[in-house]
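Course assignment 3, question 2. Fill in each field.
Student: A.L.
Task: Predict the tertiary structure for the chain below.
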Amino acid sequence: MLIVSAEEMRSLDNRTIKEIGIPGIVLMENAGRAVAEKAREILGSVYMKRICVFAGKGNNGGDAFVCARYLHNWGAKVKIYVLESLDNFRGDAKINADIALKMGIPIGLLSDRREVKKLPYSLPFADLLIDGLLGTGASRPVEGLLADTIKMINNAEKTVLAIDLPSGIHADTGQVLGDAVKAAYTVTFALPKRGLVVYPGKDYVGRLSVADISIPIEKLNQEIKVKLLTQQEVGEMLPKRTADSYKGDYGKAFILAGSPGMTGAAYLTSQACLTAGAGLVTLGLSKSLNPIMEVKTNEVMTKPLPETEEGLLSKSCLPILEEELKDLDVLAVGPGLGRSDELTEIVWELVKISPVPLILDADGLFALSEGIEILLEAQSPIILTPHLGELSRLSGLKVEELKSDPIGHCQNLARDWGVYLIMKGAATLVASPEGEVYVNSTGNPGMATGGSGDVLTGIIAGLVAQGLKPFQACAAGVFLHGLAGDLAAKERGFAGLTAGDLIRFLPAAWEKCKAF
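Answer field:
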């Protein structure tokens, strides 16, 4: 599903009006009715229900006036609240405000002290509050009467339905502009806005639904580079198995992982890779760890490699790895690998010589951060899987800066570095060197546990091994990873969830996607 910025949505609106010939007031009518129908769905029946509608002076407010009109006609007891005189309304919003006034729908002016004093006592008796104060154009901090109104809406602790997006949320970044309406439901128009699907904005949205208001997305054929991952789309990406196939058809993966005290990371990554469907998986590790992994793994093969006195990989393993690379489909490096100057040299050299897609995670990313410019020497696709702390180290940007515009930063860094970048978090992002971005829609807080990232690396490696292009493998991988977590949480809850559960529920997640 496509996701738009505020500017992209404005362009779609304008082109619909100018190129297709649908007047703006018709789009507003469709939007307002869609919200009214959602209100009716929430309440079951709106007849004699008390509904307070908050309307700003822009197009979002115009949608609110249309919505109020429909609810009034359906028998609801509606009151509209505005922050300033209707004389300040313009265009289609003014037309719909005047219609509401002529229909006798009560309109309260909150700049009137008497009206604003009554509001905290009126809201608790409402059956539904509808927020149409601010639209996608909001970018400045919320203050004054507007901030006070938002606080009163939230303090009322009533069910709130937001129009297009909750007031006070930045449409592009999801940032809270000082204060924001905490909605239980949001109806957005035509396409989801970026700020609705990333945090913290996503936390204010409640249940999101997308209303068709007659904007012909396909006809306009506008280039939109950001998408929300859906189960159907992932199901179409996943590789298919044929009846006459054998293990060689599903690829060979090599995992370079593990160090003393961190053999679990190596196990989880390699096992996830195998469970994700790779035909053959080999785990490369320090030779002293081989006896442990021979016991831990049954289906995964091991490749003992030269090590230092500390038990970490020695750079003398490079010729062996170079030989291994001749017969592989993917290489994943980093989970539990450890940190040393020699390991940094190993990672840098692998970036330069790998003839197959290379996935870098955890300690592999740490080594990369010592010289990010080495990416310019890569001859094959590179996949990076950092969480925010790791990405901050790689990019030099502070975590808070990355959070301020996650989609924008992820998109720019992937372009600048020429890599496939996975920004792990509550709403994981996947960006390509061409600037395309997928926003993941699966996952839960229970997955904030040790080893979860190792499992993700293994899943992606398994998908690349089976022939998926890197961008598809990353997108499908993060979705399956999150879905496995969601399925596990239903059975185990959040607190008891472990990385091993993600592997156990991965086949069920795969089958759920394939059902589409």
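Instructor remarks: The radius of gyration is 27 Å. The mean pLDDT is 96.
Grade: pending
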